[in-house]
Specification:
The chain contains four helices and seven strands. The model has no long low-confidence stretch (mean pLDDT 93). It has one domain (3-137): Nuclear Transport Factor 2, Chain: A (Roll). The chain is globular, with a radius of gyration of 17 Å. The two termini are 28 Å apart. The protein has helices at 3-25, 29-33, 51-62, 160-171, and strands at 36-43, 48-50, 65-72, 76-80, 83-96, 104-117, 120-135. The chain is an alpha+beta fold. Pfam families: SnoaL_4. It comes from Prauserella cavernicola. Residues 6-127 form the SnoaL-like domain. This is Nuclear transport factor 2 family protein.
Length: 172
Amino acid sequence: MTAIDDLLARTEITDVLCRYAHAIDRGDRPLARTCYHPDATDDHGRFSGPVDELFAFFEAYGATLSGTYHFLGVPTIALDGDRADVETYCLYRRQSVDPAAQAVLQGLRYVDVFERRDGRWLIARRTVVLDWEHAAPPAPAVPSPDTWTRGSRGDADPAAPLTRALSRRVTG
């Protein structure tokens, strides 16, 4: 593998990781599904099995959440031909639709096997490692004013044009 090939592989793998986090947080599960090979498996803690079943689980579990937030660290990537072992640190926050429930903040690591098939690097196997978690603190005593632009899922989010562009890029 040339130095350019190495850089291209690392860039594509990093792009897949970022696309996944963006898609999940924007509630676009079809876009998130494009980050995996068709026969991929995922051990996501609450679910372990084939990726299509994972996304069926996400559909049901996602309905209980008003929002999620992924903040990814720089991935550590070990390339070996058409395979890469990848570890990515992640701060993850989830908020229930139940207004009385506290948000949960977790320190995670994605331990992934990426494979290049048909010229595309995608996740073949993922294990989500939970290093720590705690209930998020209560709402701020003085909340931010309504003048802030707020994030949401779907077309109401300010990043919706980016989500559509990412979908066009990976689907044709």
